[in-house]
Amino acid sequence: xxxxxxxxxxxxxxxxxxxxxxxxxxxxxxxxxxxxxxxxxxxxxxxxxxxxxxxxxxxxxxxxxxxxxxxxxxxxxxxxxxxxxxxxxxxxxxxxxxxxxxxxxxxxxxxxxxxxxxxxxxxxxxxxxxxxxxxxxxxxxxxxxxxxxxxxxxxxxxxxxxxxxxxxxxxxxxxxxxxxxxxxxxxxxxxxxxxxxxxxxxxxxxxxxxxxxxxxxxxxxxxxxxxxxxxxxxxxxxxxxxxxxxxxxxxxxxxxxxxxxxxxxxxxxxxxxxxxxxxxxxxxxxxxxxxxxxxxxxxxxxxxxxxxxxxxxxxxxxxxxxxxxxxxxxxxxxxxxxxxxxxxxxxxxxxxxxxxxxxxxxxxx
Length: 365
Description:
Elements: E1 6-7, E2 18-19, H1 24-30, E3 60-62, H2 63-66, H3 71-87, E4 90-94, H4 100-115, H5 118-121, E5 133-142, E6 147-149, E7 153-160, H6 172-197, H7 202-209, E8 214-223, E9 235-238, E10 244-249, E11 256-260, E12 263-266, E13 274-278, H8 280-285, E14 295-297, E15 305-315, E16 319-320, H9 324-330, E17 338-339, H10 340-349, H11 357-361
Parallel strand pairs: 3-4
Antiparallel strand pairs: 1-5, 2-5, 4-13, 5-6, 5-7, 7-8, 8-15, 9-14, 10-13, 10-15, 11-12, 11-14, 16-17
Helix pairs in contact: 3-6, 4-6
């Protein structure tokens, strides 16, 4: 399937892409599905090719080395980290310091949320794209102006600079607050390391991106077993916004795929690691030195899949463009500047023209 075939954008056919008519999970539980309901059926050019090549060479970054007091060890780790951000745009993070018990509790409690009755979850149906808590289904639009619903139940929570969380299950708030707080600290260290690799002053970068008031959101995705996985998607090809997305996947369950030079590769994380995606705003700020990876999620017939992603951006009021010292060094800016909040809103309100918003921000000389 071509990367531009679908877009996670709204269209004139509906006010916004969120809805909550019935969760995928409750539909699967209430009937013995043998065929995919039509609203979830995506077929372009007679099929939906979700094949991918197994990948053994995805970079592995040691976070403990990245933050080491040993200058030689840290210098080597920073170089490897910068290489992973420039080459793949996605990598595995090991020795990250996030307690395994905390990650397990997060995933288990999020799974409990998705098991709540639909009537309880429906209170979080998105009224707008800026709603602090949104739960439900997600519609996408194809380049042929058709819409379909992803085979996915989702929960999105804004966690910083203001913290929000559903009231049930009861432990969720405390777990999410601790987890996202730890992730923010980790991301600030990673931004500092990438600043070092670009020979930028860390204080300049933190101020330019307003990291103390950075926008952070947690996105949980639940994909039940699918009767016809080759006819639908869990998530269409897309780039993440922001700086870094930190992804926890229960039991390393397969389904995430990344595009590299037009070929899809499976991202199968080893135990006790996080998956990190480079965001569009880091690509823009680095003037192209870092590359945001295009990725998608496919579903399967045999088992459910659960993943929790924490997206970490700049401050909402930051006009994000290439860093001034890098523009001076490169002789030109390769990306247009745009206010972060406007960029986020444009993801859902812009008319889809076959190009991603990141593509539109690139300046071609």
